[in-house]
Structure formats: structure tokens, C-alpha cells
Amino acid sequence: MTLPIIAYGDPVLRKKATVISPDYPELKALIDNMYETMYNAYGVGLAAPQIGLSIRLFLVDTSPFAEDEGLTEEEQKQLKDFKCTFINAKILHEEGDDWAFNEGCLSIPNIREDVFRQPKIKIQYQDEDFNEHIKEFDGLLARVIQHEYDHIEGVLFTDKISSFKKRLIKRKLQNISKGDISVDYKMKFPNISKKR
What we know:
CATH class: Alpha Beta
Distance between the termini: 16 Å
Mean pLDDT: 94
Low-confidence stretches: none
Number of domains: 1
Number of strands: 9
Shape: globular
Strand content: 25-35%
Helix content: 25-40%
Structural class: alpha+beta
Largest sheet: 5 strands, antiparallel
CATH topology: Peptide Deformylase
Radius of gyration: 16 Å
Order of helices and strands: EHEEHEEEEEHHE
């Protein structure tokens, strides 16, 4: 089932999400619905707050990035084969020199900005069966994970851009929160009751 994606301006996107346990109601169906929702919106990641649930759950499938020109063969393979569900994730360590990459977000459609992040992370998380993992990721894969991880911390990519750029996109952000935007997937807007 495709779920509506929560638009910029909704308070759920600003909450630090809570830990969940294996008895979380209908978790498998929720995860399936989140993947369906993400694919329907042509995303490479989706976090539970983006569908209105303030829980520590996000998922990533970077296969669409594997088609990007300018990536090495190794990078393409890494992205093509990566699909993962992260439950109760905690980034343990980030390292390396900050690098810029143009990011967007399904909750903030039609806005893209360069965001600086460190290129390597170590993350602890549980999978769909609540098996514990500690893994290291780098490059674009790390970036997608960092972006989705920010969502469960109540942080948006627009928080990481300069105050000058924030002023430039202020009107666009206001329009998104009012539902004054055209997207080709279902969204739920905080300042109006209709769904698109």
C-alpha cells in the first residue's frame, strides 16, 4: 500500500524518533508499505517520520544511483546491490573531510541543495529480524544513510545549508507546507487537510 509522504512543515519531521521493539504492531507490513511508497516516489531512502511515524526506522535502496554517469565501476556495483532496512540505528562515528553533494528529499520536493557531509560512517542498527549489526559505509552509500538517519533525529537536509541559501528557498518551503506544489506522488500537507 502506498502511503502519503509527510510534507515539510509537519512537526513529526522535527521530533527525535523513539526506539521500537520486535513486538511493534504489524512491522513487516509497515516496512513493505514503506518500500512500496519509496519506489512509487522514485526515492532511494525513506524514514518512518516521513510517513508520520516518529519511530527509529528507515530504509535505503540505492540501485537507482548505480546508473549515474561519473561513478567508478566499483561505486556502481556497491550502489546497485544495496538494499537495507535500518531499525534503531545509531551512527557511532563519522570521519573524513567534508564533501558536497546535491541532495533532495521526498518531504521537500523540487528543492535540491549542496550539503556537506563526512564520507565515512560506522553505524549500529538492527535489521527486520532485529539482528544486531555494526557496519562501515563510505561515499554515496554513507551519504544516503546519513540523510535518512537525520530524519530519525528530527533533522532535515535544509538545516545543513547556509543561512543565505535558506533565505533563498524560504518561499518555496512555505509553499510546500501549504500544499502549493505539484508532485506525482501522494503527500500530506501540514497546513491543509487535503491529500494529493
